[in-house]
Every structure is written in C-alpha cells, then in structure tokens.
Amino acid sequence: MNSQADLQAAFEAYMAENTKFEGGNSAAGTRARKALADLGKAVKSRRAEITEVKNARKEAKAAK
Fold first, then answer.
1. How many whole angstroms separate alpha carbon 38 and alpha carbon 25?
2. What is the pTM of this model?
3. What was the pLDDT predicted at 41?
4. Which of 19, 46, 51, 58 is most buried, by the most CB atoms less than 10 A from its CB?
5. Ranges under pLDDT 70 in the chain
C-alpha cells in the first residue's frame, strides 16, 4: 500500500469507530483512539516521503 492509501484507510477506520462510539459503544472509543494513532503514524510517514522527494528535487536542480 502507498502512504496515500494508508492515510485514507486509517481515516475511514477512525470515522467508522467514532460513529459507533458516538452511538454509545464505549469499546469503539478504544478502537477509535487506536485508529487515530495509526493515522498519526501514516501522516508522519507521508511527511517524510514528501521531504525526501523535495530534497531530491532540490539536489537535482542544484546539479544542473
């Protein structure tokens, strides 16, 4: 899976569990919190990828 798909899947998992939690299912709150933690990891991963690409472009431009 790519990081874009990871982000989307984590967000969808959070939304599903949050809806259950708002409906009164307390156990879904724990799963929603886990989904948010996974979302945070996916965000950090994507940020690192973007920085890597940005730096590679900067180096390629400087080499010209």
1. 20
2. 0.80
3. 92
4. 46
5. 1
Cα separation, 19 vs 34, whole angstroms: 14
CB 56 within 8 A of CB 31: no
Burial 19-48 (b: 16+ CB within 10 A, else e): ebbeeeeeebeebbeebbebbeebeeeeee
| Residue keyed to tokens 């965000």 | 43
DSSP symbols for the chain:
--HHHHHHHHHHHHHHHHHHHHTT-HHHHHHHHHHHHHHHHHHHHHHHHHHHHHHHHHHHHHH-
